[in-house]
Write a structure and sequence with these properties.
The complex is a heterodimer of chains A (433) and B (81).
Chain A (H helix, E strand, L loop, with lengths): L13 E4 L2 E4 H12 L9 E6 L2 H13 L4 E5 L5 H9 L2 E5 L28 E6 L7 E6 H4 L11 E5 L6 H12 L3 E5 L5 H11 L4 E4 L1 H10 L2 H6 L4 E5 L5 H10 L4 E8 L3 E6 L6 E2 L11 E5 L2 E5 L12 E10 L2 E7 L5 E3 L2 E3 L1 H9 L4 E11 L3 E10 L5 H13 L10 E3 L13
Parallel strand pairs in A: 3-4, 3-5, 4-6, 8-9, 8-10, 10-11, 11-12, 22-23
Antiparallel strand pairs in A: 1-2, 6-7, 12-13, 14-18, 15-16, 16-17, 17-18, 19-20, 21-22
Chain B lengths: L2 H14 L12 H4 L3 H15 L7 H5 L4 H13 L2
Helix pairs in contact in B: 1-3
Classes of the chains: A alpha/beta (433), B mainly alpha (81).
Chain lengths: 433, 81
Amino acid sequence: MSPDGAPPICLHNRLHFADGTTEWAGLLAEAAQHLGAPARYAGLRVIFVVASARAALAALVYGLAHDLDCGVVETARLSPEVGARFAGAGVVLIDAGCGAVLGQGGDLAPEHQPAHGGDHVPGRVTVLTSGTTGLLKLIPHSAATLNTFDRVKSLPANGWFLPYQIGSYAWYQMVALGLFMPGQDLVPGDFSDLAASFAAALRCGTVTAISSTPTFWRHALMSIDADLLASAPLRRLSLGGEIVDQAILDRLAALYPQAQIRHIYASSEAGAAIVVTDGRAGFAESLLHHADGRIGLKIEEGRLFIRSPYGNKAAAGDWIDSGDLVENRAGRIYFCGRAGNSMINVGGQKAFPADIEAHLLSHPDVIWAQVTARRAPLVGYLPVASVVLGRKLEADTAEAMLTAHCQTRLADYAVPRLWDFPDTVPIRASLKS
Amino acid sequence: MQRSDILKLMNTVLVKRGRAEITSPTQTTRDAGFRSLDFSETALRIETMIGAELAFDAASMRRIETVADVLDFFEAATGQL
């Protein structure tokens, strides 16, 4: 079924939706009914506009099976600005429910004919990311670059909960796992209410593995019944997408002592690069020196550079600046945040929000924490903290408690000076906070 | 802003840091343990309370040596708004 050069699709891997289970073969047939003959899309760079996870997965397997130049986007993400971005890239928007060409604003415009501007690359998969500016970016990938499991000979059978936003790089990575690795089923979550859909999936007993972010887990720990979480037969947990702190690793290890827990550092441009399985935050310095020949790591001026065959700049020798700041502490490399916004200059002293947040998160009452800089007279900037607590406390009491906690380890200039305590974990579309 | 309210804020900042409250406006900021970070935090808290940014004159800030100087400064800074 798969075109030459692309990994074969595991058509009998299953997908567990809330209303029933199907296989990729079934989704492919569904998509064919809606989208018609693949020849309709020949020569076009298409993005299938979808209204559900099921529609997205069906459209994607259809596109991959027929070597189309394609991607997916949710109807809710379309806007005149996004439409203009697509139009500028020569993308044709297709309604995944009926195969109709859509106007660039996402409305049904029957008079529009398929455009023939822009390039066309058979087998290209367009991944959508928000980039550092928040504007939509179109990152070209392929089944081969998305399949970061190609070096894995086999995996034990698992049902993976899929929490990511449709069309994002992390979503594609997990979908690729379900498409190309035998025995890997997917359990798509409802991004509009992740906690509820995760809880429902846990009750069904179909979830045995999950790849997600620390923020997702803090949200889940706060929102889902503790007994339900603890009883879930999770065998495999992967974390990534943002800095994975020691506190969340320790909490998950305590909750799921039987599970293999790993955290993965990856970026949409460089591809999966570092997998850590020792239960500790950061990664061993030795990884900088024992590159496996395919993936290279180096640190220059405190920034991490990566060379990976899974990146969209896969030419040999292309080092990609990850934009992530790192620090070597006693042979362990820790992530300190993103370049440009990860250090607070407090009267000439450097305070790192990532360090402060990690220490706050080590407090048993802290579910989520974010430290930012606030302009202040005399010293330039002061760190201020926003913290979600696991139990109800008066603001003054919480502030005193956490200030004392910070003072046990942090320098005086790094202790947050202003605090607020929101009720819930703010969670963005990327599942990051 | 009243001097008593400013003093109350300064003491809040000190006590949160585990330090003793100010005993007299004639205390030097050094003896009171009121440091530059505390000054900045006090300024931020005042700004939060009054909903406006304070203007800081670098020259006047260099003359701050005692608690009374700090009170004078903030009283003047908030009075100008």
